[in-house]
Amino acid sequence: MTYYSALSDNASLFANESSLKYRTRGKYRNSPAGAGMGAARSRSKSFHFMVLFVFIILSSFLFGMMVDAYASGNSLDTSLTNVHEPAVVFAKQGDSLWSIARSHAQDGTDLRSYIEAMKKLNGIKNGYIMEGQKIVLPD
């Protein structure tokens, strides 16, 4: 083998080097460095687009709900004004459940069932109350 033929063999090796295939991630790729990174980047991009899409959909949904609530006139302030406070009485000396029921029950109401409702609302086991005790009256 002559010097020229050895040189030409080396040149053919260098010429064919660009066509060598490098094994990366189980597949043959033509480029040795960064092979397979394009797929990872595209997956990351598609994930970011999906997150952005979901965010836009949820934002538009919430915006629509706010516009609907404003248009219908419902607000937190108007709903709180309808809250009903229960009637409360503080027992005085000499009061009993019977006397409180007689003075606060509506006409025609059975006093025994009214007293039972008072006992249940206030957690009274026996029929005794003390002076200054807070008694919540049933509706």
Structural description of this entry:
By secondary structure, the chain is mostly helical. Among the domains are: 40 residues; 49 residues, Membrane-bound Lytic Murein Transglycosylase D, Chain A. The protein is built from five helices and four strands; from the N terminus they run H-E-E-H-H-E-H-H-E. The model has no long low-confidence stretch (mean pLDDT 76). This is LysM peptidoglycan-binding domain-containing protein. It comes from Ferviditalea candida. Keywords: Membrane, Transmembrane, Transmembrane helix. It holds the Pfam family LysM.
List keywords for this structure.
single chain, 139 residues, mainly alpha, Membrane-bound Lytic Murein Transglycosylase D, Chain A, two-stranded antiparallel ribbon, two-stranded antiparallel sheet, 5 helices, 55% helix
Brief synopsis:
Pfam families: LysM. Keywords: Membrane, Transmembrane, Transmembrane helix. The chain is built from five helices and four strands.
Low confidence ranges: none
Query: For the residues shown, what is the average pLDDT?
Result: 76
Rg calculated over all Cα atoms: 43 Å
Strand content: 5-15%
Q: Could you give the order of strands across the largest sheet? A: 1-2
Q: State the share of residues found in helices, binned by percent.
A: 40-55%
Distance between the termini: 116 Å
So what's the oligomer here? single chain
**In CATH terms, what is the architecture of the domain at 88-136?**
Roll
Main sheet overview: 2 strands, antiparallel
CATH topology of the domain at 88-136: Membrane-bound Lytic Murein Transglycosylase D, Chain A
The tally of beta strands, per DSSP, is 4
SSE order in H/E notation?
HEEHHEHHE
CATH class membership of the domain at 88-136:
Alpha Beta
Count up the helices.
5
- Overall geometry comes to rod-shaped
Kindly name the structural category: mainly alpha
